Automatic annotation (TrEMBL):
Gene3D superfamilies: dinb family like domain (1.20.120.450)
Residues of the DinB-like domain: 39-166
SUPFAM superfamilies xref list: DinB/YfiT-like putative metalloenzymes
Record protein name field: DinB family protein
InterPro entries per UniProt: DinB-like, DinB/YfiT-like
Name of a matching Pfam family: DinB_2
Length: 176
């Protein structure tokens, strides 16, 4: 297995620190590959009754939380690719609520979202493994913040861990 090390705190905006700290290993590829199995299997084991559950009026459903994890991975993987290839044009921010509102996720079966997670994560891993150490340290601007490609890889992993914890703590999904 290849290795992508945890980024330095100077490689991303401090708002993303909790995501980077949530990663249980210093090998980002190991974290992403582990999530491919553990997060996917954990979600597959959840009963059908949980997928439309919202812990509070106006909050996302469990399906929408998974969709948010997916949307974030799509966006941050694209950013990492652009920065790694040396493209310097700043990228705008993305409104997560608009992405969810436009996604029609209440009409998608959970199996479809889980399938997307598996394919997206595998594709992200292939791309991340192809990046040279120099490419991983190239910087770019997104949402008016500076990031290295490596930092974006870390944020993807930490963001997924964060939302898994939210699903347990706020939505009451079983932590097994």
């Amino acid at each position: 297995m290849s290795m992508i090390a945890r980024p330095e705190v100077t490689e991303y905006h401090q708002a993303y620190q909790p995501y980077v700290e949530a990663i249980p290993t210093d090998n980002l590829l190991e974290a992403l590959e582990s999530q491919l199995v553990t997060l996917g299997e954990w979600l597959q084991k959840q009963p059908a009754s949980v997928w439309d559950h919202r812990y509070e009026e106006g909050k996302w459903s469990v399906k929408e939380v998974l969709a948010h994890i997916l949307d974030t991975e799509w966006v941050f993987t694209y950013r990492a690719l652009r920065f790694a290839r040396g493209l310097k044009e700043p990228l705008p921010g993305v409104d997560q609520d608009e992405l969810i509102a436009g996604g029609n996720f209440d009409q998608r079966p959970p199996a479809s979202l889980l399938e997307e997670f598996g394919h997206l994560r595998r594709a992200s891993l292939v791309m991340f493994k192809s990046l040279t150490p120099e490419a991983l340290l190239r910087e770019g601007t997104a949402s008016d913040c500076q990031f290295t490609s490596r930092a974006l890889v870390a944020i993807i992993a930490g963001h997924a861990w964060h939302h898994r914890n939210v699903l347990v703590e706020r939505y009451g999904l079983q932590n097994a």
